[in-house]
Design brief:
CATH topology of the largest domain: Umud Fragment, subunit A
Largest sheet: 7 strands, antiparallel
Number of strands: 9
Distance between the termini: 37 Å
CATH class of the largest domain: Mainly Beta
Number of helices: 9
Amino acid sequence: MALGARIKLARQARKMTQQELADAINWEQGAIGNVERRDSKTCSHTADIATALNVDLNWLSSGKGEMQRSGSEAVLTDKKDKDRYTVIPIFSDMALSAGAGTCPPDVEYASGHSYMLTDRIRSAGAQPDCVIEASINGNSMEPTITDRTSIRIDTSKADEPIREGKIYAFRVDGDLKIKRLLKTATGDIIIRSDNDIYKDEIMNFKDFSKIITIIGWVFDWPPNEKW
């Protein structure tokens, strides 16, 4: 895989358009397109692209190593980037199920950080200073969200009324769950997996409120959602 293909792969993994990447590194969208389309082997902006996409520079340059940078290494050094991006703490399932999904998030329990364009967060209807990241485990939300997919959660929506059909992260019996929530005509809550092999769970609202603690609205995954 040449450099152009790795740039395209990383850009799509970050759910960024060519224009967003070009804006992030102060370059032209057409230049990004040319590098990707021609599967270029070199690029004068490789270091800037690695920073904007939050990927390892050695991987992007040579294909060696891992694409994702570790939390301590994923640092934006340019003031322009810091102004354009929101730093998002990454939490493990254990941390979230223990109660780390607060607004604003308690970064003490974060295992690392990622970055997202602040304008993209706001355009989705999420609150930038309340966004956290986690990985979904299991196949209950396939094909919508696949196993091991990184998701972004807006914890500011935890205390708002449930919005019909949206996907939420919540805690139940000490476990982290990612499910779609709906309401019946009588006000009961339907807990739905997008994978048809799992049956709906229906709870009355009183029991739901006692047993389940909503962490927030899952708004970003490949592809993302809008509030």
